Amino acid sequence: MPPFDEMLLSESDVRQPYEKFFEWFAAQDTQDLASKAAEAESFFRRTGITFNVYGQEEAAERLIPFDLVPRIMAKGEWDRLALGIEQRVEALNAFLHDIYHDQEIVKAGKLPARLIEGNEAFLPEMVGFTPPGNVYTHIIGTDIVRTGEDQFYVLEDNARTPSGVSYMIENRETMMQMFPELFAQNRVRPVETYPHHLRRSLEAVAPPACDGNPCVAVLTPGIFNSAYFEHAFLADQMGVELVEGSDVAEIDGRIQMRTTEGYKPIDVIYRRVDDAFLDPKVFNPESMLGIPGIMDAYKRGAITIANAPGTGISDDKAIYSYMPEIVEFYTGKPAMLENVPTWRCAEEDSLKYVLEHLSELVVKEVHGSGGYGMLVGPTASKAECEAFAAKLKENPSNYIAQPTLALSTVPILAEKGLAPRHVDLRPFVLVSDKIRIIPGGLTRVALKEGSLVVNSSQGGGTKDTWVLRD
Predict the structure, then answer these.
(1) Helix, strand or coil for residue 25?
(2) Are residues 350 and 459 in the same domain?
(3) What domain of life does the native source organism fall in (predicted)?
(4) Same structural domain for residues 429 and 348?
(5) Could you tell me which residues come within 8 angstroms of residue 176 by beta carbon, excluding any fewer than 6 positions away?
(6) What is the C-alpha to C-alpha distance for residues 187 and 118, in angstroms, rounded to an integer?
């Protein structure tokens, strides 16, 4: 059965959200559009929109390829998806509060204690502590895949330090500059308001020590980090300071940043530094990226850290496999958004099944990300499957496996016109005094024909994502 085509019902019949775009495209010269694509690439290069590829000496900094054809969603499609995302985000925050307090979900037998005990992402330092506003995951990027008209699955929850939002905003800005007539013809909901909403959301969870007008800063590991462009972009767009660990110190019980007028207290810090490097007094003593004393100030109510330390445990793919139970346990209702069916290799029967069907499955590390450390069975060689089977047998609890889904397709601009390619979607969610879901998100596209791998580090590209108002 062919994958679900988000634009076409048949060769000549277009789905409603794409009708105006399809009519516009038919009147375009493909060579002119190819020139526009080159113009967009030149714009991204001048702006410095790059990411670093670790472990590869050549071309360490790369552009993420951008495709001009937008992904378009009807209002009803988005509204149903957003309801499911909101429910999931509520459950994730409740789950994090619970596991760092009474662990009722473990006592109820809904989640094995072994998935928390000894989990490298679980921070004992957070036990018994409640962050300001009781918010753990202030910024979430939930990866969604689609397989049918009304069939969406959550691929993973990115609740630690989700990236990619700068590409969402720049993709939109580029499209609006190059094709203003398209936006005049289609009522597209805005995504460029994200920095405004992000700042408002962060200010709303200011700590008890704040005495009005919260001071927000973005903490970056520095220019060599793969997402440094995004850190600088968001700080600039929010109108706040971008700081490194060396710019900040604990003074008079507050975390303060160096300015031209002396040190100034920070109330909320949007950190893009991993837990292990956040505070050398508490975690890795050799870290030069973090802020000595920030955890103590945090627990005294002198600063808010977004996202909260210890949220990474909710990104664990073994815990992901229990998300339907987690959602129902904390919300009292079945999950509106389904998980991708998942085999936990730590379980003997599941491991047996995975080893017998390795060539049909996608196998991932429970702490993996970015498309690394995984096996895509249908495209792997026999030797690759055999090597991966040995790793599975050696450390089964480090892996989960999932079926190869027939991801939906969206057209890209190819040499001979439009051509379908597989996509996923990362909507961005802000959590503080309320839950704000940005209408759209980052669509990642597998540019190679037939490929299911959309990660930028593995050759994928991005698209502008349109949610129509009606």
Answers:
(1) helix
(2) no
(3) Bacteria
(4) no
(5) 183
(6) 50
Residues 195, 89: one domain?
yes
What does the angle CA 330 – CA 333 – CA 336 come to, to the nearest 5 degrees?
Answer: 105
pLDDT for residue 95 is more than 90: yes
Could you give the CA distance from residue 272 to residue 260 in angstroms, rounded to a whole number? 24
For residue range 116-137, list pLDDT tens digits in order: 988 889 999 999 999 999 999 9
Distances (CA, A) of 156 to 296, 337, 424, 425, 426: 31, 12, 11, 11, 10
Map tokens 């019902």 to a residue: 9
What proportions of the chain, in percent to the nearest 5, are helix, strand and coil?
35, 25, 40
Closest C-alpha among 336, 468, 412 to residue 5 = 412
So what's the pLDDT on residue 57? 46
Total number of domains in the chain: 2
Distance of CA 79 to the CA centre of its chain: 19
Q: Summarize pLDDT for 159-173 with one digit per residue, the tens.
A: 988 999 999 999 999
- Structural tokens at position 166: 């700068």
Query: Could you say which of 375, 403, 431 is where a domain stops?
Result: 403
Q: Which domain holds residue 351?
A: 341-403
pTM for this structure? 0.92
**What's the pLDDT score for residue 372?**
64
Cα atoms found within 13 Å of the Cα of residue 140, Cβ hemisphere only: 31
